[in-house]
Amino acid sequence: MGLAQFDIAAGRQISEKCRRFACLKAKVPMISDAIRAVILGVVEGVTEFLPVSSTGHLLLVERFFEGGGDDFWKSFAILIQLGAILAILAIYFVKLWQVALGMFTDPAARRFVIGVLVAFLPAAVIGGLLGGYIKSYLFNPWVVCFSLIVGGAVLMWVDQLDLKPRLHDATTFPLPTYFAIGLAQCTAMIPRVSRSGATIVAAMLLGADKRASAEFSFFLAIPTMLGAFVYDLYKSRHEMTLDHSYIIAIGFVVSFITAIIVVKAFLSYVTRNGFTFFAWWRVIVGTLGLIALALGF
């Protein structure tokens, strides 16, 4: 082989190696994004229905993924909520199906549907008017950490009260109670007051027992989270690509499976033990977050 031929052959080998290396580099972000989607899916599934602020935890986790990421990742937390919504539908399928069948013939079923809509209305109105402002200006890691701590203190206070529950079925609350819980849900627009925490605390203060309070928080989550999902999906439609669909699917499946496990365990736990554990969880996570932020992470 001549010198020129050798150079050509060597060049081809080097070029081929470079192409393989470039392909390998191109695959790394996809692998990284998949792992990131799994982690965020687990966080969403674990925290969405606990009184600990799912968005607050997701924001703190995202903070350590290259400072939060682009606009797609900012919408990812909303988009994978569909998995958690379907988890509630799966767990309460029989009860919800009975309500759906009896909505036009059974006064009790119809009253419950109206109650959920009445509770959902305040968040729909305020969220529609102020949602963009809240997402643009109030999603700050420092605010998140302080809100986690304050919310934990509120949970501890409520858990220590000598309440006398008189409402034991989430489907039979008075309509004014449903509306008051809906107003309380609006406080969850303050970063990062927990949506489930706000609604559970309100229901307990209005006379519901711990299990009924938690269950109505789950039912109210269905229209609230579904509305947020549809709204954010519409706004983010131009950012969606096939690669994004793949990442969202991973987060969706992980959040669905995780939420089913957590919701069943949560109902059993709070019925026996209350919310002290989750109050301390918020305080510890918020404190660790403040320390991390102060150190420059």
What percent of the residues sit in helical stretches (DSSP H or I)?
over 70%
Number of helices: 12
**Number of self-contained structural domains:** 1
| Estimated share of beta-strand residues | under 5%
Output the helix-strand order: HHHHHHHHHHHH
- Specify the oligomeric state: single chain
Biggest beta sheet attributes: none
Silhouette: globular
Integer-rounded radius of gyration: 23 Å
| SS elements, strand count | 0
Q: Which whole number gives the mean pLDDT?
A: 80
Uncertain segments? 2-12, 17-31
Which secondary-structure class do the elements indicate? mainly alpha
Task: Note the gap between the termini.
Answer: 57 Å
Summarize the structure.
80% of the residues lie in helices and 0% in strands. It has twelve helices and no strands. The chain is globular and about 50 Å long.
